[in-house]
Amino acid sequence: VNGKTWYAVERFADDNVARLLHGGSVPGKEIPAEGPVRAYDSDGRLLAIVSYQPDQQAWKPLKVLSSLQD
Asked: Edge to edge, what strands does the sheet with 26-27 contain?
C-alpha cells in the first residue's frame, strides 16, 4: 500500500489463522515496524498483509492473500 516495501514479519499461531483469513482482527502485541507487515502461518505460508491497531491491541488484515484451501 502506498508503494512502501514491507520488511517486518509476524507469524500467527494456527488457532488465529482462520480468523485472519476471513478478514478478522487477531489479538497480538505490536512489533517495531513502520507500516504494513507480512503475516505468515507456522508453516511459513504467506497469509496476508496486516496492520497493527493499537487501540484494539490487534492485527487487522489489509489484504488477505491466501485461503483455507491453499
From this structure: 9-11, 37-40, 46-53, 58-64, 26-27
